[in-house]
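hey m, so remember when u said the tokens were messed up on ur end? i reran from scratch. heres the input so u can diff it against urs
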Amino acid sequence: MPVTIRSFAKINLGLKIGPHREDGFHELRTVYQTVALHDVLRLQVTRGTGIEIRTRDPRVPTDESNTCYRIAERGMKALKARGRVVLHIEKSLPVQGGLGGASSNAVATLLALERLVGTQLAPEERLRLAAEVGSDLPLFLLGGTVLGTGRGEEVYPLPDQPPLDCVLVTPEVGVSTPRAFADWDCSPSGKLTASRYSDKLSGFSRTVFAWLSGFSTGVPTHKGGNRAEALLLDLVRAGIENDFEDVVFPQHPELRHVKRALEREGARYASLSGSGSTVYGLFESRAAARKAAARLQAAGLPALASRTLTRREYWRRIWK
């Protein structure tokens, strides 16, 4: 019997780029937040050998370059399972849009394999396999609000925040993440000394924890209004930003225009997600988000209204 699973997206609530590491990656600090937009995967293990990926979306690779293929290989070996893995991907999330769709698909594949085989890997083994395949995979083993460090693969659960309504816009713009990192390295911000990089990354962590601490203790900095509104106001006040905007927006000014359009439509906080091309805005209510999405769609922008997912809701909704 096949297993069906939802594969949710993520956004980045701030992202700070640090120095090059010995492995060639950059040190990063970011806050991941899962959102309700999702793909649907259906997986089964049949007689035979190998891995077969089926999808109607021509942008999705069906060979070894697909993260699902790579983690299925590792997962079957780790689970000591035999058979032919057949995976159907119903794609709704944008491909290479900064929402972690491919990474989320891979984690969903691993979880579905465990259910089919009837064996669960140890948490540390899951994390190891996920980190081997890609930097964004481990966050989807936690869900909710997650601190990402290292190259993004070292993940720590943060206190869940009130669900926030959001609008996501993904223009058909090809943003190359390697190019974005290269542009960062050539920029003035990318030429900091080691000590200044250290101060910058530490400062981001302190800012994030200061922003979240009021909600974990039940005493937000902003008084009055609902908790979601207070969270947004404190987020803006904290000045949490995505470093990629400094180099991606000059290369793709249409993405800066999208951010401004979201702010004009009432987003209390707007940002690039990852290196893009998705730009999202956070709103005070579902009605405000839906109204903004409709107005942006009417203006020709591919906007979708959604909502952030707490960790508990993420795991409650993942199995279809």
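this time it looks ok to me. The longest strand covers residues 26-46. if urs says something different then somethings off w ur setup not the seq
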